[in-house]
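Hi all, a correction to my earlier message: I attached the wrong file for Lipoprotein signal peptidase. Here's the right sequence:
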Amino acid sequence: MAIFIIIAILLIDQIIKIWVKTNMTLHESIYITDWFRICFIENNGMAYGMEIGSKAVLSIFRIILIGAIGYYMYLQIKKKARFGYIVCLAMVIAGALGNIFDCMFYGLIFNASSDFYTSYFVPFGTGYAPFLMGKVVDMFYFPLIVTTWPQWIPFVGGEEFIFFSPIFNFADASISVGFVLLMLFYRTELSHITFKNQPAEIVDNKDDKETEHEE
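and the right structure:
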Protein backbone atom coordinates (compact mmCIF):
# COMPACT_ATOMS: atom_id res chain seq x y z
CA MET A 1 0.00 0.00 0.00
CA ALA A 2 2.86 2.39 0.80
CA ILE A 3 4.43 1.74 -2.61
CA PHE A 4 1.06 2.23 -4.31
CA ILE A 5 0.56 5.59 -2.55
CA ILE A 6 4.05 6.78 -3.53
CA ILE A 7 3.61 5.74 -7.17
CA ALA A 8 0.13 7.30 -7.40
CA ILE A 9 1.27 10.65 -5.97
CA LEU A 10 4.33 10.66 -8.24
CA LEU A 11 2.24 9.98 -11.34
CA ILE A 12 -0.32 12.68 -10.52
CA ASP A 13 2.43 15.19 -9.71
CA GLN A 14 4.39 14.53 -12.90
CA ILE A 15 1.32 14.50 -15.16
CA ILE A 16 0.30 17.93 -13.85
CA LYS A 17 3.82 19.36 -14.14
CA ILE A 18 4.42 18.05 -17.65
CA TRP A 19 1.04 19.34 -18.84
CA VAL A 20 1.71 22.79 -17.39
CA LYS A 21 5.26 22.96 -18.73
CA THR A 22 4.29 21.90 -22.27
CA ASN A 23 1.02 23.84 -22.53
CA MET A 24 1.69 27.13 -20.73
CA THR A 25 4.31 29.82 -21.17
CA LEU A 26 6.36 30.84 -18.16
CA HIS A 27 4.36 33.12 -15.82
CA GLU A 28 1.15 32.48 -17.74
CA SER A 29 -1.92 32.33 -15.50
CA ILE A 30 -5.22 30.52 -15.99
CA TYR A 31 -8.13 32.01 -14.06
CA ILE A 32 -10.28 29.41 -12.29
CA THR A 33 -11.94 31.50 -9.56
CA ASP A 34 -11.08 34.69 -7.69
CA TRP A 35 -9.27 32.58 -5.09
CA PHE A 36 -7.71 29.89 -7.30
CA ARG A 37 -5.52 30.17 -10.39
CA ILE A 38 -3.08 28.01 -12.30
CA CYS A 39 0.11 30.08 -12.59
CA PHE A 40 3.22 28.54 -14.17
CA ILE A 41 6.50 29.39 -12.47
CA GLU A 42 9.77 27.56 -11.85
CA ASN A 43 12.07 27.70 -8.84
CA ASN A 44 15.52 26.49 -7.87
CA GLY A 45 14.87 25.81 -4.23
CA MET A 46 12.86 23.81 -1.76
CA ALA A 47 9.12 23.75 -1.11
CA TYR A 48 7.16 26.93 -1.98
CA GLY A 49 10.13 28.44 -3.83
CA MET A 50 12.52 28.83 -0.90
CA GLU A 51 16.20 28.87 -1.85
CA ILE A 52 18.89 27.64 0.55
CA GLY A 53 22.54 27.33 -0.47
CA SER A 54 23.97 25.57 -3.51
CA LYS A 55 21.56 23.89 -5.90
CA ALA A 56 23.70 20.75 -6.27
CA VAL A 57 24.24 20.44 -2.51
CA LEU A 58 20.52 20.93 -1.93
CA SER A 59 19.65 18.20 -4.43
CA ILE A 60 22.13 15.74 -2.88
CA PHE A 61 20.79 16.56 0.59
CA ARG A 62 17.25 15.83 -0.63
CA ILE A 63 18.29 12.43 -2.00
CA ILE A 64 19.99 11.47 1.28
CA LEU A 65 17.00 12.65 3.30
CA ILE A 66 14.56 10.73 1.10
CA GLY A 67 16.67 7.59 1.51
CA ALA A 68 16.72 7.99 5.29
CA ILE A 69 12.96 8.50 5.53
CA GLY A 70 12.36 5.58 3.16
CA TYR A 71 14.51 3.28 5.28
CA TYR A 72 12.71 4.45 8.41
CA MET A 73 9.33 3.76 6.79
CA TYR A 74 10.54 0.27 5.84
CA LEU A 75 11.42 -0.41 9.49
CA GLN A 76 8.02 0.87 10.61
CA ILE A 77 6.27 -1.44 8.16
CA LYS A 78 8.23 -4.40 9.56
CA LYS A 79 7.25 -3.33 13.08
CA LYS A 80 3.60 -3.18 11.95
CA ALA A 81 3.19 0.48 12.83
CA ARG A 82 -0.22 2.11 12.52
CA PHE A 83 -1.54 2.25 8.97
CA GLY A 84 -2.16 6.00 9.05
CA TYR A 85 1.40 6.63 10.18
CA ILE A 86 2.76 4.70 7.21
CA VAL A 87 0.44 6.59 4.85
CA CYS A 88 1.69 9.96 6.14
CA LEU A 89 5.32 8.89 5.75
CA ALA A 90 4.59 7.69 2.22
CA MET A 91 3.02 11.06 1.36
CA VAL A 92 6.10 12.94 2.56
CA ILE A 93 8.43 10.60 0.64
CA ALA A 94 6.35 10.81 -2.55
CA GLY A 95 6.25 14.61 -2.42
CA ALA A 96 9.99 14.84 -1.92
CA LEU A 97 10.58 12.39 -4.77
CA GLY A 98 8.31 14.41 -7.05
CA ASN A 99 10.38 17.57 -6.63
CA ILE A 100 13.77 15.86 -6.75
CA PHE A 101 12.68 14.20 -10.02
CA ASP A 102 12.31 17.70 -11.53
CA CYS A 103 15.81 18.64 -10.38
CA MET A 104 17.34 15.42 -11.65
CA PHE A 105 15.76 15.11 -15.09
CA TYR A 106 13.82 18.18 -16.27
CA GLY A 107 17.02 20.03 -17.17
CA LEU A 108 18.04 17.05 -19.31
CA ILE A 109 14.78 16.45 -21.20
CA PHE A 110 13.23 19.94 -21.64
CA ASN A 111 14.35 23.14 -23.30
CA ALA A 112 14.31 26.28 -21.14
CA SER A 113 10.88 27.70 -20.34
CA SER A 114 10.07 31.15 -21.71
CA ASP A 115 7.46 33.88 -21.46
CA PHE A 116 7.09 33.72 -25.24
CA TYR A 117 6.70 30.02 -26.06
CA THR A 118 5.82 26.73 -24.39
CA SER A 119 8.54 24.30 -23.44
CA TYR A 120 8.98 20.99 -25.24
CA PHE A 121 10.91 17.72 -24.97
CA VAL A 122 14.44 17.59 -26.39
CA PRO A 123 16.85 14.64 -26.88
CA PHE A 124 18.03 13.35 -23.51
CA GLY A 125 20.99 15.34 -22.21
CA THR A 126 20.51 18.34 -24.50
CA GLY A 127 18.17 20.32 -22.26
CA TYR A 128 18.61 23.57 -20.40
CA ALA A 129 20.57 22.26 -17.37
CA PRO A 130 22.83 19.38 -16.26
CA PHE A 131 21.85 16.52 -13.94
CA LEU A 132 20.53 17.68 -10.53
CA MET A 133 20.29 21.28 -11.73
CA GLY A 134 16.79 21.30 -13.19
CA LYS A 135 14.08 23.65 -11.94
CA VAL A 136 10.97 22.62 -10.01
CA VAL A 137 7.64 23.37 -11.70
CA ASP A 138 4.98 25.10 -9.57
CA MET A 139 1.44 26.04 -10.57
CA PHE A 140 -1.19 26.17 -7.79
CA TYR A 141 -1.96 29.71 -6.61
CA PHE A 142 -4.59 30.47 -3.96
CA PRO A 143 -4.86 34.24 -3.35
CA LEU A 144 -7.63 33.78 -0.79
CA ILE A 145 -7.64 37.42 0.28
CA VAL A 146 -6.40 40.31 -1.86
CA THR A 147 -6.59 43.70 -0.21
CA THR A 148 -4.52 46.78 0.67
CA TRP A 149 -2.76 47.57 3.93
CA PRO A 150 -4.26 50.62 5.71
CA GLN A 151 -2.30 53.81 5.12
CA TRP A 152 -1.60 54.27 8.83
CA ILE A 153 0.49 51.05 9.09
CA PRO A 154 4.22 51.92 9.02
CA PHE A 155 6.39 50.72 6.11
CA VAL A 156 3.62 48.71 4.33
CA GLY A 157 0.70 51.17 4.42
CA GLY A 158 -1.01 51.45 1.05
CA GLU A 159 0.71 48.38 -0.39
CA GLU A 160 -1.11 45.32 -1.69
CA PHE A 161 -1.60 42.43 0.73
CA ILE A 162 -2.26 38.87 -0.47
CA PHE A 163 -3.15 36.19 2.04
CA PHE A 164 -1.42 32.93 1.05
CA SER A 165 0.67 34.09 -1.86
CA PRO A 166 2.99 31.05 -2.36
CA ILE A 167 2.69 29.15 -5.63
CA PHE A 168 3.19 25.43 -5.11
CA ASN A 169 2.74 22.04 -6.76
CA PHE A 170 1.07 18.71 -5.97
CA ALA A 171 4.29 17.34 -4.45
CA ASP A 172 4.53 20.30 -2.07
CA ALA A 173 0.91 19.73 -1.04
CA SER A 174 1.60 16.05 -0.39
CA ILE A 175 4.56 16.89 1.85
CA SER A 176 2.62 19.56 3.74
CA VAL A 177 -0.50 17.45 4.31
CA GLY A 178 1.55 14.43 5.37
CA PHE A 179 3.64 16.54 7.78
CA VAL A 180 0.60 18.26 9.34
CA LEU A 181 -1.16 14.92 9.88
CA LEU A 182 1.99 13.53 11.50
CA MET A 183 2.11 16.51 13.89
CA LEU A 184 -1.58 16.23 14.74
CA PHE A 185 -2.11 12.50 15.13
CA TYR A 186 1.23 10.69 15.36
CA ARG A 187 3.33 12.67 17.82
CA THR A 188 3.83 9.55 19.94
CA GLU A 189 5.47 7.71 17.05
CA LEU A 190 7.56 10.76 16.15
CA SER A 191 8.83 11.08 19.73
CA HIS A 192 10.20 7.52 19.54
CA ILE A 193 11.88 7.69 16.13
CA THR A 194 14.66 5.15 15.83
CA PHE A 195 16.44 3.35 13.02
CA LYS A 196 16.86 0.21 15.13
CA ASN A 197 14.57 -2.72 14.50
CA GLN A 198 14.42 -4.18 18.04
CA PRO A 199 10.92 -3.67 19.46
CA ALA A 200 10.50 -7.31 20.49
CA GLU A 201 13.62 -7.31 22.71
CA ILE A 202 12.47 -4.21 24.55
CA VAL A 203 9.08 -5.73 25.29
CA ASP A 204 10.61 -9.04 26.39
CA ASN A 205 12.98 -7.33 28.81
CA LYS A 206 10.11 -5.44 30.34
CA ASP A 207 8.08 -8.62 30.76
CA ASP A 208 11.06 -10.38 32.38
CA LYS A 209 11.43 -7.62 34.95
CA GLU A 210 7.73 -7.77 35.81
CA THR A 211 7.94 -11.56 36.24
CA GLU A 212 10.96 -11.26 38.56
CA HIS A 213 9.16 -8.63 40.63
CA GLU A 214 6.09 -10.86 41.03
CA GLU A 215 8.29 -13.79 42.18
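Sorry for the mix-up. The CA atoms of residues 91 and 177 lie 8 Å apart.
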